[in-house]
TrEMBL record:
The lineage of its organism: Bacteria, Bacillati, Bacillota, Bacilli, Bacillales. PROSITE patterns: ACT. Residues 164-224 form the ACT domain. Keywords: Oxidoreductase. It comes from Staphylococcus saccharolyticus. Pfam families: ACT (PF01842), PGDH_inter (PF19304). GO terms for molecular function: phosphoglycerate dehydrogenase activity. This is D-3-phosphoglycerate dehydrogenase. Gene3D superfamilies: 3.30.70.260, D-3-phosphoglycerate dehydrogenase, domain 3. Its EC number is 1.1.1.95. It is an enzyme of class 1 (oxidoreductase).
Amino acid sequence: MSVSEEIVEILTNGTVKHAVNAPKMDLNNVDENIKNFVDLSTTIGEFGIQLLDGTPSEIKITFAGNLVKNDTSLITRTIVSNILKEDLGNDVNIINALAILNQQGVTYNIEKQKKHSSFSNYIELELSNDNNQIKIGATVLAGFGPRIVRINNFSLDFKPNQYQIVTCHKDKPGIVDQTGNLLGNHGINIASMTLGHDDDEGGDALMILSIDQQASGEVINVLD
């Protein structure tokens, strides 16, 4: 059973399969607010580990707003399992994720804040190692669904997509056109584009492209 199937089984029937020696989790009465964040937490974990250069030595997950009134362990386990799956594949699931994390010597911390300055519910994932650090902030907006609203110091607002390209570059004219032309020449359609930049002219900028198909290694190498 895959992690996604395991989550569906939990949310539908409140049952956990393959839970040998696992801590008991009461999932029959999962709050609707928590359910809305489970799919988003999968995206956060996958997105974060792909943006980090290398494997994390420390993981920090911050919950803020109304979420903290509920048991957030399912969200935590989902995030961690999808971080670990990048290297370990389907050997990791929401039941054994935290145990494997401890075995690997990865430090993890959970922080809860009663309020967030901008959102009624908010999750932030921070991954770090000796080389770099990645922060991803996300929420679920009524009527709009899951949104990524922060990457590192960039405030953004975009809906997670199956295929996305994230580039960090200097904020100067021509970058957007060059990237669009590159993808167009390879037959890749851009479904949406989100831009974030520093307040300083010519500073760092971030571009997130939601595309309709997976980009080839050749395209990624050119963008790098």
